[in-house]
Structures are given as C-alpha cells and as structure tokens.
Design a protein that fits this description.
The structure holds 2 protein chains of 2 kinds. Chain A is an all-beta fold. Chain A has no helices and 11 strands. Chain A is globular, with a radius of gyration of 13 Å. By secondary structure, chain B is mainly β. Chain B contains no helices and 9 strands. Chain B has strands at 9-12, 18-23, 35-40, 47-50, 64-69, 72-77, 86-93, 99-101, 105-109. In chain B, the strands form 2 sheets. In chain B, strands 1, 3, 4, 7, 8 and 9 form a 6-stranded mixed sheet that branches. Chain B is globular. The chains are: A mainly beta, B mainly beta. The interface between A and B is medium-sized, with 22 and 27 residues.
C-alpha cells in the first residue's frame, strides 16, 4: 500500500533553515509528482509547491519562491523540502502529498510540525 | 494567488443534507474541472473525498457528491452522520500551473 512517512518534529530559531523528508513506499516513486502543503495552527491548508521526482522539475507558489526548495533522492524514494530564513509565522505542520494524476492529492504524509521560536 | 472562498462553518442534523460552497475565479475553478475536496479530522492528515469536481475515489461513500457552476464548486453531504463532523477543504488547479486551497469549512453535526 502507498505510504508517505515524514521526518519528525523540529524546533528552530528565527532565521534558521529546516529540512523535512518524505519517504515513499508502495509505488514507483519516480512516476508520481509530489506536492508540499502546510497548515499553520488553527488555520487552513496552503499549497507550497510540486516536484517531479523523475526529472527534478519544480513549481513553487510565488509566496515561497525565494526561500523554499524541493529536492529528491530517487535512490531512496525520498522527497525533501527546505525552508530558509524561518520566521515565527512559518510555524506549521508541513505535509507531503502525492499527486494523484487527476489534479488532486491522493495520499498524504502524517505531517511534520515545525516550530519557529526564539 | 488568493485562497478560494468557503463558508467558515456549516451545520446539520443527522440524516439531513448540507452543502459547502467553494468560490474561485475564472483563473482557477471557473476554467478547469480540476477541483478536489478533502476531509480533515483533528490531528490527522487530509483525506481525498472528491476529484475532478464529481469523482469519488474508491472507498468514499456515495453520500459525498460534488458539482460546479461557473466559478463556484460545491460539496454535498447527504444523510449526515456523526462521523462526518470534520473540516472540509476544496482545492483547484490554476492557470499559473499552481494549486490553491479554500480557507476550510467546519462541519458540525448537531
């Protein structure tokens, strides 16, 4: 069965960077796009970007273009997101979500809480 | 890209039907049949309910249905059950080759 398993919670200081991993299993990693979505405490979902694991091609939401990077390691079926110059309003749960080939997000990771605090 | 507009909350009694709206623009909802809906219970990841406006993944009860008219998509839940109490989000592909979510709607089953 398809599974997306993310790395554990992180606590970071303002100005630092954070890198979150998302290990995929149960399907061919390189055949399906991967998205990143975040959710601030008590708030809604926010789309951040998408990566094609085969080519590495990326699309970023304009809001994050200057400090958000998505990468992947196909040898271990793992996608990564890195957010730099962290601010307190970056405190959120970050999810990876597989693109279901039908303009949707069909499988989601369990989420990774990133807390930014001095 | 502004978030799609959803009502903050809706409510209904068991057995009733409720409809949640999702209003976008001609650059997203209005231009593509690429709207999906997600259910999120507290502390859990979202779950796909509807894709491409009207389609249900296997395992999703047919009590959940989707539709679209112009720039507004809708999710209807019929025969409300207590377990349907959750947050619901719509999402749409956009003309910028990006995705946008709605602000979310909290469903209360009375």
């Amino acid at each position: 069965q398809v599974q997306l398993v993310q790395s554990g919670a992180e606590v970071k200081k303002p100005g630092a960077s954070v890198k979150v991993s998302c290990k995929a299993s149960g399907y061919t990693f390189t055949d399906w796009y991967m998205h990143w979505v975040r959710q601030a405490p008590g708030q809604g979902l926010e789309w951040m970007g998408r990566i094609h694991p085969n080519s590495g091609a990326t699309i970023y939401a304009q809001k994050f273009q200057d400090r958000f990077t998505m990468t992947r390691d196909t040898s271990i079926s793992t996608a990564y997101m890195e957010l730099s110059r962290l601010r307190s309003d970056d405190t959120a749960v970050y999810y990876c979500a597989r693109d279901g080939h039908k303009w949707n997000f069909d499988y989601w990771g369990q989420g990774t809480l990133v807390t930014v605090s001095s | 890209q502004s978030a799609l507009t959803q009502p903050p909350s809706v409510s209904g009694s068991p057995g009733q039907s409720v409809t949640i709206s999702c209003t976008g623009t001609s650059s997203d909802v209005g231009s593509y049949n690429r709207v999906s809906w997600y259910q999120q219970s507290p502390g859990t990841a979202p779950k796909l309910l509807i894709y491409e406006v009207t389609n249900r993944p296997s395992g999703v009860p047919d009590r959940f249905s989707g539709s679209k008219s112009g720039n507004t998509a809708s999710l209807t839940i019929s025969g409300l059950q207590a377990e349907d109490e959750a947050d619901y989000y719509c999402s749409s592909y956009t003309s910028r080759d990006t995705w946008v979510f709605g602000g979310g709607t909290k469903l209360t089953v009375l």
